[in-house]
Amino acid sequence: MGRKASKALENIYYMARFNAAKKDSTFTSREKTSRRLGIERSRLARIELGIITPYAEEILVMAKNYDAMYLADSYCENICPIGKQRVLASLANSPAANESLERLALGFLSSVQSIDDITEKLINISKDGSVTNNEFESFHEVLVSMNSLSQNIKNIKEWILSDPSLKAKFYNDIKDV
Q1: How far apart are CA 143 and CA 140, in angstroms?
Q2: Cα separation values, 47 from 50, 58, 130, 166, Å
Q3: Of 5, 42, 112, 144, which has the highest C-beta tally within 10 A?
Q4: How many whole angstroms separate alpha carbon 139 and alpha carbon 113?
Q5: Burial class for 93, CB neighbours closer than 10 Å (0-12, 13-18, 19+)
Q6: Where would I find the beta strands (DSSP E) of the chain?
Q7: 8 Å CB contact between 168 and 70
Q8: CB atoms within 10 A of CB 58
Q9: So what's the pLDDT on residue 17?
Q10: What's 51's DSSP letter?
Q11: Local confidence pLDDT in tens for the 177 residues of the chain
Q12: How far apart are alpha carbons 125 and 138 in whole angstroms?
């Protein structure tokens, strides 16, 4: 793309097109993009500037062409009344979304500090290819630590997904939550 549209830099639709332009030069301009998507250029500009809300059909076309399915997810979670209601219900049940990033990071760091100990125990247990009776307690400690680490990672991913602007930027990296 030639130059960034400074007024649209925080817009999810503009950023999706900008990222798609890295792989396909068709998306470097609104003119070429509008022809490819079948959305009028001025309408695309208003969508990217946040002046108007795109239709669901336009979201689907952009998501498919830009290879950015998070646009559809974002639409469902933030614009569609049914989707918004479902998201609010699931977030109310997600403890991670209600935690601060600092608290989640501390939980993660606490789990990570035990990695060396877990690694050593796992190596000692697995040397002979089986878990013997006297290794059950150590193996249990390894599994508990692994579960704790996994849960802390999941909590941070959920926290990211609960913020629409972060989700737009990192969705492809963490969509397996």
Answers
A1: 5
A2: 5, 10, 59, 19
A3: 5
A4: 18
A5: exposed
A6: none
A7: yes
A8: 19
A9: 94
A10: S
A11: 555 556 667 788 999 999 999 999 999 999 999 999 999 999 999 999 999 999 999 999 999 999 998 898 888 877 888 877 776 666 556 666 667 888 888 988 988 888 888 899 999 899 888 888 888 888 999 999 999 898 888 888 888 877 777 777 777 677 655
A12: 8
Sequential DSSP letters for 25-38: GGGGSHHHHHHHHT
Compute the residue count for the chain.
177
**Which pair of structure tokens corresponds to residue 21?**
């332009």
Residue 144 Cα to chain centre, angstroms: 26
Residue with tokens 């022809």: 35
- Tally the C-alpha atoms within 13 A of residue 28's C-alpha that lie toward its C-beta: 8
Residue 154: per-residue pLDDT: 85
Tokens of 94: 């997600």
Report how far residue 18's alpha carbon sits from residue 3's, in angstroms, rounded to the nearest whole number. Answer: 10
**How confident is the model at residue 174, as a pLDDT?**
73
The amino acid at residue 32 is K
Q: How far apart are CA 68 and CA 128, in angstroms?
A: 47
- Rounded CA separation 94/158 (Å): 8
Q: Give the list of residues 6+ apart from residue 52 with CB closer than 8 angstroms, or none.
A: 43, 46
